[in-house]
Amino acid sequence: MSELKQRRNAPRGYVDNTSAKHSHGTSGNAARADRIAWWRIVIRITLTLLALNICLSFLITETPFWGHKSKWTNWRNYIPRKQRVFTQLELAQYDGTDPEKPILLAIEGDVYDVTLGSGFYGPGSSYHLFAGRDASRAFGTNCLSRKDHLTHDTRGLSEGELAGIRGWHRLFDNHQQYVKVGVVNLDPIDPNSPIPPPCDGAKAKPI
Ligand code: HEM
């Protein structure tokens, strides 16, 4: 029997819920489809604006994010990297003297690949003395002319000098071109060994 006939034959007071259910289901589906369509539009507009923004930034600053550079604007930092634990002797092999190996430096025990900064850290460059070791002390005291400051021994440093080390550490951590590759197991400092004397009088400039 057709639906119309069924309805005609139905007793008085009978309420047919099926059509209400159907229309409710249909309008529910339509509402959901509408929402999805809106989200699609929003996502499309956002992606288009993002692409336009990157293109404009490239045209004006030749960088994708208006000159902003940090580790997050470096695609290499999105590749999960196995972190290695170095001994100090192992780290020393990465001071740039072997062109086949990357240039690594450590600060406060964290090891960074600074090969892209070879102009700073390669052999013969001003900051080569930082390569292949943890010379945190020199980062704090700015004393690049004394070998005894090229150490991870930070005993006796002032708050300002320690803050200086942390500042350099942040620079390496957020640097657009450098990546953290592991940590170095630093030899414990003998508490009875003499604290390196301050740099006063010695050249604070790079050697
Ligand atoms: C007369 C003193 C100094 C001058 C004129 C000087 C100058 C410079 C210049 C021009 C740069 C290049 C900046 C760049 O292009 O991004 C640089 C980088 C650097 N300086 Fe100095 N500097 C001096 C002292 C020092 C000292 C005492 C330290 C030790 C803490 C130091 C550590 C560094 C490091 C680690 C970099 C490389 C940063 C990187 O890898 O991006 N400098 N310096």
Indicate how many domains the architecture comprises. 2
Terminus-to-terminus distance: 101 Å
Hetero ligands: protoporphyrin IX containing FE
Strand order of the largest sheet: 1-4-3-2
Q: What proportion strand? A: 5-15%
Structure class: alpha+beta
Number of strands: 4
Q: Summarize the main sheet.
A: 4 strands, mixed
CATH topology assignment of the largest domain? Flavocytochrome B2, Chain A, domain 1
Mean of all residue-level pLDDT scores: 86
- The CATH architecture category of the largest domain equals Roll
CATH class of the largest domain: Alpha Beta
Task: List the total number of helices.
Answer: 6
What would you give as the CATH superfamily of the largest domain? Cytochrome b5-like heme/steroid binding domain
Fraction of residues in H or I helices: 40-55%
- The assembly state of the depicted protein chains is single chain
Rg, please?
32 Å
Question: What is the H/E string?
Answer: HHEHEEHHHE
InterPro entries: Cyt_B5-like_heme/steroid-bd (IPR001199), Cyt_B5-like_heme/steroid_sf (IPR036400), MAPR/NEUFC/NENF-like (IPR050577)
Keywords: Membrane, Transmembrane, Transmembrane helix
Protein name: Cytochrome b5 heme-binding domain-containing protein
Transmembrane segments: 41-60
